[in-house]
Amino acid sequence: MDIKKLHENPPYGMIAILFFGAFVALLNNTLLNVALPAIMTEFSVKPAVVQWLTNGYMLVNGILIPASAFFIQRFTNRRLFLTAMLLFTLGTALAAFSPSFGFLIAGRMIQASGSGIMMPLLMNVMLTAFPVERRGTAMGIFGLVMITAPAIGPTLSGWVVEHYSWRTLFEIVLPFAALALIFAFFKLKNITPNRDIKVDIFSLVLSSIAFGGLLYGFSSAGDKGWDAPIVYGTIIAGAVALVAFIIRQLRMDDPMLEFRIYKYPMFALSSVIMIVLSASMFSGMILTPIYVQTVRGISPFHAGMLMLPGAILMGIMSPITGRLFDKYGGRVLAVIGLTITVFTTYLFSKLSLDSGFYYIMFLYSIRMLGMSLVMMPVMTNGLNQLPVSANPHGTAMNNTLQQISGAIGSAVLITIMNTRMETKGTELAAKAAASNHGAVSPEAMEQLSKVAMLNGITFTFFIATFIALVALILSFFMKRVQPPKTDEAVAKKLKLKPQTE
């Protein structure tokens, strides 16, 4: 494939098919959470068991995404997308018509094996198809897909579960998945460069233990507690395996995941900003629904509606942000976006027991606006410094770090909230008992628990403000970059063989 001709005439039709497939896969990611209680009832399973529908999905993604750099380099983008979409479609069908919980779990795992490769593949195609000066716009449209699909998921599933069976969630996705597969079969072409490389089985095993262990450990910490053997055991195993994995990759001539791309300073900086930002972002995504539903007593469906305008605004802004990135670069957008994020996160730390519905909606929407100015520009600016041959490693690394940092961020923030809530609850209960001679009514205790939870949530938002502030400070060091002109440059820098196209 002639890269120059490709840049002059990008394959928009093909990219639209990839977008459609990725949208369906991402929409599916967030559909099931609301339906878990209904599934528990139908199959008579406990919360710890039903949680494997989301944990298992996440783990398969966590294992496959780091390996995506190998798959993208080894196989053509057409074969890879068709395989991923076929697996996703088969998994969706199995889940929709599953006669038992075991079949449902298997369906979700097969779905995950398809969707795990979808996002890194799409990002890699975008980086190959567009020159640096037009990547911002292209990645902005990509951001629209990445943001809108997960945002629609909870609201749509809330409505569906209220009126229909949980199986309808899979039945809605199935025809769209099949449609994406049919379009891809007839229209998809190969544009990404490939190499005949061999998979290192030991690296794959270490990667699976490392990223799977870390993801499971941190994701379980909020529910099971940090002192649970399964939590600290999997985190320790994951950390040890990760160190061994990194050492092995640095010693290999053809690594599964190339860590030497961190020799590029803007890519390294963008990774650090994205890690910090992902941790902070999860404060809004997790704590806002808890506040709205538990403290304010708003129904799950209306809680989803409250968060929907922010997600829509973020989606609308994504292509606009992409165009602004192409014109002005990433730093100015990141600084403005993170300033908004820091300020609104601080305002969330001032919420009260009677904060208005529309005030919360407005505040959440403005926070999402700030996020929309940061995510894609920071990521794209870092990837722009990498040459074509390093793109699969860059996209795999970014997607992996986002998953890991999101899991760590949410676990830490939930722990902070619970600790603060318990401390405040004990303090309030003691004061109430002292002033009422030990007698506290159930209604008073319920109110005290709400106050304690509110205190835990607002304090956690206050901590998240400082996390976002770290990302803001780092964003001032961003610079506009260009990739090396030839693959000989990357070969020299990373001590690798240049990639042929």
UniProtKB/TrEMBL annotation:
The chain crosses the membrane at residues 12-32, 52-72, 84-106, 112-132, 139-160, 166-186, 198-218, 230-247, 267-292, 298-316, 328-349, 355-376, 454-478. PANTHER family: MAJOR FACILITATOR SUPERFAMILY MULTIDRUG TRANSPORTER MFSC (PTHR42718). This is MFS transporter. Its main location: membrane. GO terms for molecular function: transmembrane transporter activity. It holds the Pfam family MFS_1. It is found in: Cell membrane. It is a multi-pass membrane protein. PROSITE patterns: MFS. SUPFAM superfamilies: MFS general substrate transporter. Keywords: Cell membrane, Membrane, Transmembrane, Transmembrane helix, Transport. One of its GO terms (cellular component) is plasma membrane. The keyword Cytoplasm does not apply.
